[in-house]
């Protein structure tokens, strides 16, 4: 099959490069021509099944990375969107320019930057310090506080999180701007400050309207976690690649299985958000 | 005062009609009973860019008065209301509510807005909240009322506008007239000294307008001080204690409804009422 051959050769080519960032394989396995071996062989599926737990381990990391990236993206992106709508002066200009740069840069470049250029131990130490402080404040809990965070995971979270913030800020900006100005005027007319009006009247409506855009963003971030492969984070794609290096005839089976996992994740979360969206929908509102 | 003001006996008939709620009803013939005006506007100027929307407007409205503002579109009626409610910043001039100067720099506009209720042309109910919660939101967040007290107050305001059975409906589930009545109830719940109405019925069908006008008539009967921008001349004739005719950002003429309708001093005023009556025929 052409597709099998192409995938096999491309992945093999990546693994062969000794100088590049993508050179992750330490030993180069003997290449078997996937065409000669034939696609979708029972033995290859058995290989996938035998290593399913290894892939699911990568899936857990993928989900974790998606969550941390989206949370960071929300924490930065929501205020950024609000600043773009309601802010003024230097802050607004800065937020806009930062967003333009982030949206205009390929994710792999951002990730290479956060991994190789940023002093990554600074945010790692900060996170560990915060977690330790929270743990101390909470007293004994059933959870163990991590004493360190893998630098690949931190770099991937920062890259995906900042990029997602840039996109989420536009989702929220659009949603905030779509709320009629009269809503804020009405809130102020009963004695609310501008900030109270935005918080209690505009934001609750804007968040509802941002769900479709957010579903999109979720799907994109989930799938783009695979870029962390480039800095060697053992998420789903990296582990799939590891398996392929062990049994090169199984590349199509591995890729299909991996894609199925991505699909199930995106499908399940999109359906959940659909449900949440209709649950929180304003009764009688057609928009 | 840039505009002529006619303080004759006609103004007082409105007070009599409003009944016992008003402190001045004791002796309608006594000219000295009137206290300081509740709302006083002095030489108000407001521009949007190069366009001067209000060009020196002065106005005095006594407690219990129902002042109807009329005038062609673009005359500055809505802007005047927004200035009164501090929703728009003024360029120069002074506005007083009782003894408080609304326009003073140390006056908290949020405090003023609680005392001045506003009803909007496009209604502006909070779309994500039920009728009841539209009313409780301000009571809870601005007044700091408990949930139970706010709910009780909201229900009594809804009952006042005849919508007790719609407390749990969302704005999108209500008719235009019902929505506007909730809008009125929302403003009344804050116990305002003055109620401003910015063309409250112009977005509604005539049939739906009537239910809103009925509620407004009841407010008049209760002695509420009101400033109303409207083209509903039936309401103006029946309820207004004074009519102010604005054109090009200035008050052209001001007086009791009978005189302005029957015998306006200015050609411009006569022309306007002529046009309006044709529209409504």
Automatic annotation (TrEMBL), chain A:
<feature type="transmembrane region" description="Helical">
    <location>
        <begin position="54"/>
        <end position="78"/>
    </location>
</feature>
<dbReference type="InterPro" id="IPR000515">
    <property type="entry name" value="MetI-like"/>
</dbReference>
<dbReference type="InterPro" id="IPR010065">
    <property type="entry name" value="AA_ABC_transptr_permease_3TM"/>
</dbReference>
<keyword id="KW-1133">Transmembrane helix</keyword>
<dbReference type="GO" id="GO:0043190">
    <property type="term" value="C:ATP-binding cassette (ABC) transporter complex"/>
</dbReference>
<dbReference type="Pfam" id="PF00528">
    <property type="entry name" value="BPD_transp_1"/>
</dbReference>
<feature type="transmembrane region" description="Helical">
    <location>
        <begin position="249"/>
        <end position="269"/>
    </location>
</feature>
<protein>
    <submittedName>
        <fullName>ABC transporter integral membrane protein</fullName>
    </submittedName>
</protein>
<keyword id="KW-1003">Cell membrane</keyword>
<keyword id="KW-0812">Transmembrane</keyword>
<keyword id="KW-0813">Transport</keyword>
<keyword id="KW-0029">Amino-acid transport</keyword>
<comment type="similarity">
    <text>Belongs to the binding-protein-dependent transport system permease family.</text>
</comment>
<keyword id="KW-0472">Membrane</keyword>
<dbReference type="InterPro" id="IPR043429">
    <property type="entry name" value="ArtM/GltK/GlnP/TcyL/YhdX-like"/>
</dbReference>
<feature type="transmembrane region" description="Helical">
    <location>
        <begin position="98"/>
        <end position="118"/>
    </location>
</feature>
<dbReference type="InterPro" id="IPR035906">
    <property type="entry name" value="MetI-like_sf"/>
</dbReference>
<feature type="domain" description="ABC transmembrane type-1">
    <location>
        <begin position="59"/>
        <end position="273"/>
    </location>
</feature>
<dbReference type="GO" id="GO:0006865">
    <property type="term" value="P:amino acid transport"/>
</dbReference>
<dbReference type="GO" id="GO:0022857">
    <property type="term" value="F:transmembrane transporter activity"/>
</dbReference>
Automatic annotation (TrEMBL), chain B:
<protein>
    <submittedName>
        <fullName>Phosphonate-transporting ATPase</fullName>
    </submittedName>
</protein>
<dbReference type="InterPro" id="IPR003593">
    <property type="entry name" value="AAA+_ATPase"/>
</dbReference>
<feature type="domain" description="ABC transporter">
    <location>
        <begin position="39"/>
        <end position="273"/>
    </location>
</feature>
<keyword id="KW-0813">Transport</keyword>
<keyword id="KW-1003">Cell membrane</keyword>
<dbReference type="InterPro" id="IPR027417">
    <property type="entry name" value="P-loop_NTPase"/>
</dbReference>
<keyword id="KW-0547">Nucleotide-binding</keyword>
<dbReference type="InterPro" id="IPR030679">
    <property type="entry name" value="ABC_ATPase_HisP-typ"/>
</dbReference>
<dbReference type="GO" id="GO:0005524">
    <property type="term" value="F:ATP binding"/>
</dbReference>
<keyword id="KW-0472">Membrane</keyword>
<dbReference type="GO" id="GO:0015424">
    <property type="term" value="F:ABC-type amino acid transporter activity"/>
</dbReference>
<feature type="region of interest" description="Disordered">
    <location>
        <begin position="1"/>
        <end position="38"/>
    </location>
</feature>
<dbReference type="InterPro" id="IPR003439">
    <property type="entry name" value="ABC_transporter-like_ATP-bd"/>
</dbReference>
<keyword id="KW-0067">ATP-binding</keyword>
<dbReference type="InterPro" id="IPR017871">
    <property type="entry name" value="ABC_transporter-like_CS"/>
</dbReference>
<dbReference type="Pfam" id="PF00005">
    <property type="entry name" value="ABC_tran"/>
</dbReference>
<keyword id="KW-0029">Amino-acid transport</keyword>
<comment type="similarity">
    <text>Belongs to the ABC transporter superfamily.</text>
</comment>
<dbReference type="GO" id="GO:0005886">
    <property type="term" value="C:plasma membrane"/>
</dbReference>
<dbReference type="InterPro" id="IPR050086">
    <property type="entry name" value="MetN_ABC_transporter-like"/>
</dbReference>
<dbReference type="GO" id="GO:0016887">
    <property type="term" value="F:ATP hydrolysis activity"/>
</dbReference>
<feature type="compositionally biased region" description="Basic and acidic residues">
    <location>
        <begin position="1"/>
        <end position="25"/>
    </location>
</feature>
């Amino acid at each position: 099959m052409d597709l099998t051959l192409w995938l096999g050769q491309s992945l093999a080519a990546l693994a062969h490069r000794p100088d590049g960032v993508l050179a992750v394989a330490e030993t180069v396995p003997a290449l078997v021509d996937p065409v000669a071996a034939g696609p979708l062989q029972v033995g290859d599926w058995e290989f996938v099944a035998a290593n399913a737990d290894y892939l699911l381990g990568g899936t857990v990391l993928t989900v974790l990375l998606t969550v941390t990236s989206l949370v960071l993206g929300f924490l930065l992106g929501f205020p950024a969107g609000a600043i773009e709508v309601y802010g003024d002066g230097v802050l607004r200009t800065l937020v806009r320019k930062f967003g333009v740069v982030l949206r205009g840069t390929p994710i792999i470049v951002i990730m290479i930057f956060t991994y190789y250029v940023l002093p990554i131990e600074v945010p790692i130490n900060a996170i560990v310090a915060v977690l330790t402080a929270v743990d101390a404040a909470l007293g004994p809990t059933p959870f163990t506080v991590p004493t360190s965070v893998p630098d690949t995971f931190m770099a991937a979270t920062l890259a995906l999180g900042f990029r997602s913030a840039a996109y989420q800020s536009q989702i929220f900006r659009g949603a905030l701007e779509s709320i009629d100005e009269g809503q804020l005027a009405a809130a102020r007319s009963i004695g609310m400050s501008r900030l109270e009006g935005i918080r209690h009247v505009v934001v609750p409506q804007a968040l509802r309207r941002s769900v479709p855009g957010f579903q999109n963003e979720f799907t994109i971030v989930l799938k783009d976690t695979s870029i962390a492969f480039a800095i060697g984070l053992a998420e789903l794609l990296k582990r799939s690649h590891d398996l392929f290096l062990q049994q090169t005839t199984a590349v199509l089976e591995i890729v299909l299985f991996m894609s199925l996992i991505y699909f199930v994740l995106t499908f399940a979360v999109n359906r959940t958000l659909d449900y949440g969206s209709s649950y929180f929908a304003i009764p009688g509102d057609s928009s | 005062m840039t505009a002529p003001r006619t303080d004759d006996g006609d103004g007082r008939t409105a007070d009599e009609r409003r009944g016992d709620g008003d402190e001045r009803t004791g002796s309608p013939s006594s000219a000295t009973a009137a206290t300081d005006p509740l709302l006083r506007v002095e030489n108000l100027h407001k521009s949007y860019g190069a366009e001067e929307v209000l060009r020196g407007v002065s106005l005095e409205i006594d407690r219990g008065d129902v002042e109807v503002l009329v005038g062609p579109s673009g005359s500055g009626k809505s802007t005047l209301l927004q200035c009164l409610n501090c929703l728009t910043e003024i360029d120069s001039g002074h506005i007083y509510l009782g003894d408080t100067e609304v326009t003073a720099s140390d006056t908290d506009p949020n405090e003023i807005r609680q005392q001045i209720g506003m009803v909007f042309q496009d209604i502006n109910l909070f779309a994500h909240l039920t009728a009841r919660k539209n009313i409780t939101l301000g009571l809870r967040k601005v007044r700091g009322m408990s949930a139970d007290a706010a709910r009780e107050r909201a229900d009594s305001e809804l009952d006042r506008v005849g919508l007790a059975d719609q407390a749990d409906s969302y704005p999108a589930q209500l008719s235009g007239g019902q929505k506007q009545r909730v809008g009125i109830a929302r403003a009344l719940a804050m116990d305002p000294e003055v109620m401003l109405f910015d063309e409250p019925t112009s977005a509604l069908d005539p049939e739906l307008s009537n239910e809103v006008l009925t509620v407004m008539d009841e407010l008049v009967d209760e002695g509420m001080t009101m400033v109303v921008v409207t083209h509903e001349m039936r309401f103006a004739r029946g309820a207004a204690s004074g009519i102010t005719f604005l054109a090009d950002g200035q008050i052209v003429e001001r007086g009791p409804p009978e005189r302005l309708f029957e015998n306006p001093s200015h050609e411009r005023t006569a022309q306007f009422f002529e046009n309006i009556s044709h529209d409504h025929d």
